[in-house]
Amino acid sequence: MSIFKNRPKPMPLAVPSAEPDGSTATTPLEHNQVEKTDAQWREELTPEAYRVLRQAGTERPYTGEYWDTHTRGVYQCRACGTELFTSNEKFDSHCGWPSFWAPLADGTVRYIHDRTMGMDRVEVRCATCDSHLGHVFDGEGYGTPTDQRYCINSVSLKLVPADDAGK
Asked: What is the pLDDT of residues 75-107, one digit of tens each?
């Protein structure tokens, strides 16, 4: 079964929220490789990056660095450097945030059933450091190979242009 209602999709099931009020689960999974204290994250990240990555915030639409970029390359997690998405899967959704139709590989992101703000969504997190990236939506009619839109905050990502790859 899918993380989306009534639609079979070859995607992992979302982890149910552990909080009774419907907020997202924050318990690290066994495969997390990067564990830092809150103080370490605050020191390493800008205030906006900390708010989005560590507190599951959302940047304002059309303000992020990558929402309208067409540079070829690999998008890494800004917090830990894990490669998450590529420009090959990026598409113009005109929603104000970078949109991808799939992650780079299975296991690079994890999914959490998100019932915050009166919505029923699927949160996307980095599988390596458990940072909030954004949300994934299904069946919006964009005509992508997966019929999914990974709506990701620019501040959650760092683009390594194809010309710089391997340096």
From this structure: 999 999 999 999 999 999 999 999 999 999 999
Averaged pLDDT for residues 105-131: 92
**pLDDT given for residue 116 in this prediction:** 84
Indicate the residue type of 14. A
- Please give the sequence-ordered ranges of beta strands (E in DSSP) within the chain, or none if there are none: 73-77, 83-86, 90-91, 99-100, 109-114, 121-126, 132-138, 148-152, 157-161
Integer Cα distance of 45 and 126 in angstroms: 15
Integer Cα distance of 137 and 121 in angstroms:
7
List active site positions: 151
Q: What domains appear along the chain, each with residue ranges and CATH number? A: 38-164 (2.170.150.20)
Across-strand partners of 132?
Answer: 125
Rounded CA-CA distance 109/129 in Å is 10
